[in-house]
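Quick note —
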Amino acid sequence: MTSTRSLRIPTDPARAPFASELWLAAIGLLFDAVTGLAGLALLLLFALSLLLYPLVYIGLPLPVWSAALLLRLSRFQRRPMLITLGAEIGEPTAVETAGSARERAHTALTARTLWRSVGYWALRIPLTVLTVGGVVALLAGPIALAALPGYWRNYPTRSADFGPVTIHTWFGTAVAAACALIFLFLATPVLIRWLADLDVVAARALLAPQTLTERVAELTTSRQRVVDSAEAERRRIERDLHDGAQQRLVSLAMLLGRVRSRLGPDADPVTRELVDQAHREAKASITELRDLTRGLHPPVLTDRGLDAALSAVAARAPIPVSIEVAPELTGEHRPPATLEAIVYFVVAEALTNVAKHAGASHAWVRVTRTPARLRAVIIDDGRGGAHPVPGGGLTGIADRLSGIDGTLHIDSPATGTTTVTVEVPCAS
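Predicted structure written out below.
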């Protein structure tokens, strides 16, 4: 279980100055000077690396390396705080990175964990001055004053100056020593505990796992990266199949066609039938592979966008389908490739459901965009009564939309005319 408090320094005046907790806390606060200097050096290196970031060969790895060192120092800082202050600071979730080197660098440099660490080490500079200076003043000062009666006569003037106060008698040194001992026994443990608590509060605020809101935002970003990565992988598989296996099958079909054309009229009928059958199978395999690649990711969607891709779906539909795609979704204003693919497959699945179950004579598809949402509306004049069922097409659409916080609304009265409205987040 994660500790929620630092080591408790005893408040009993008879025990506090001799308690191990007090001296461990003092050592921990003094050690902040070492880690604080290291943090300051890494902060300066990180700031310099950000200035060099536009450079291709130097600027790309240097910020990532300096950020990694800063995060490593933050992880190290948890150990002495646990040993000396008894404060267990949890580890934040590691940042997931994927894509090209520049994309990974951008993900690492925009992670909240990194910037929380930057904030901690920036705060650590004045905090170290306070904690280290406080420990020295709270321990060294009272101890030196407590021993004053033993060495004050060694001063050339046989007097000790403490600001506006000058002590030049043994009685005065005894009073000063008594006050110092009272302060050491009563005030020093309490004030050092306050400094230790302040140190722990700063670490927990900036180095501990993120709050629920920040964690949700981090998970949302991580989920989006997974969705984008999956869609990129689908596009890669489609390209590999289209440029590899499909081209080989086309070549095989052409070769079999040439073999069939070279068979003379006296050729063995069995051989001719086998060649014809192989030629038909090759062409059937090409058709199946083309349908498979189109199901993974249609090339027309990448090349020409939603309007052309949905028009191709409408052309293959068994009923007339009218397609209307808003102009702001074409050309330079196209949405991200992942959203385009999701909307495409959702509309294609909805039209498949219309053809299979609605008994409609016509369907309409309208895709529009608002400043924050991408909306697709599919309408048919069928018999209505559509609703999601386990394993059905509408359930599949809802599952696909759930990965990007999309919504599905179905208006399908029994009297007919079903309207399926799909919305997905799409920041402008």
